[in-house]
TrEMBL record:
GO cellular component: cytoplasm
Cofactor(s) recorded in Swiss-Prot or TrEMBL: Zn(2+)
Lineage: Eukaryota, Metazoa, Cnidaria, Anthozoa, Hexacorallia
Gene: CA2_1
GO molecular function: carbonate dehydratase activity; zinc ion binding
Identification of the protein by name: Carbonic anhydrase
């Protein structure tokens, strides 16, 4: 089967052929985060702020893998995550984005059915588990919380100076399969909101094949602003079939018996 993607021929509705869990899984991601009514997110006063320790990355690769653009620091990076719903310390692995071809679509998670133009995913793996000692092993471990992904919605507004070094690089990885070594240092902390207190959290999966059900999801309420020009830069990145990647987002999946917790009222 052709490698998976987001077109009619190889998109989310076809992924079950290689990944049966797409249709049989009961903790698939993304989901629609409902804030009122029966199955709504439930406030949990025990949920603490998320703690990130992100020293500026000094060595990283920025690549276009045909279905997203990904920032991958060298293995020696010391960036860590803890707090929030987590009981362990997680190591940073990579960040990447999902976006649409217009401002009314693009995010993977939704809030009461509303999509944002894009979503940033910061991917981490549990570095204190005795069962695995790398990201790839974590993905294959069947551990329900092997990974923790922080999701941030992007909305169109003022230019985001902290993300500019990334969006300015998009033209350099226009072709699928292309990558560049990231010039200089990148301060990821500066991209994020000051306080990481208000978020939704639930047990889910990778939103792309292999769709492994090993992710503790933390999706922040407060979107990050980027300019229209910065959004357009994402929409000019190619998918390897001579077309721009547009709409590299999976539709929401059934909640089943899961509950979503909110760290805010
Ligand atoms: N989109 S996502 O759920 O954050 C995500 C994160 C890490 C991944 O590693 C593989 S392989 N597929 C992945 C999807
Ligand atoms: Zn993602």
């Amino acid at each position: 089967m052709a490698p998976w993607g987001y077109s009619k021929e190889n998109g989310p509705a076809t992924w079950h052929k290689d990944c049966p869990i797409a249709n049989t899984g009961v903790r698939q991601s993304p989901i629609d985060l409902i804030t009122t009514g029966q199955t709504c997110a439930k406030y949990d006063s025990n949920l603490k702020p998320v703690i990130v320790s992100y020293p500026a990355f000094s060595e990283a690769t920025f690549l276009n893998n045909g279905h997203s653009v990904q920032f991958q620091p060298s293995a020696g990076n010391l960036s860590e995550l803890s707090g929030g719903p987590l009981t362990k310390k997680y190591k940073f692995e990579q960040f990447h984005f999902h976006w649409g071809n217009n401002d009314s679509e693009g995010s993977e998670h939704r809030v009461n059915g509303k999509m944002y133009p894009a979503e940033l995913h910061l991917v981490h793996w549990n570095s204190e588990s005795p069962n695995f000692s790398s990201f790839q092993e974590a993905v294959g471990s069947n551990d329900p919380h092997a990974l923790c992904v922080l999701g941030f919605f992007l909305k169109v507004g003022a230019e985001n100076a902290s993300l500019k070094p990334i969006t300015d690089l998009l033209s350099k990885v226009k072709n699928a399969g292309s990558s560049v070594s990231f010039p200089g240092k990148f301060d990821l902390k500066a991209v994020l909101p000051e306080t990481l207190t208000d978020y939704y959290t639930y047990d889910g999966s990778l939103t792309t094949p292999p769709l492994a059900e090993c992710v503790k999801w933390i999706v922040f309420k407060e979107p990050i602003e980027v300019s229209t020009a910065q959004m357009e830069a994402f929409r000019a990145v190619d998918d390897g079939h001579g077309k721009p990647i547009t709409g590299n987002y999976r539709p929401p999946c059934p909640l089943h018996t899961r509950t979503v917790a909110a760290s805010f009222k």
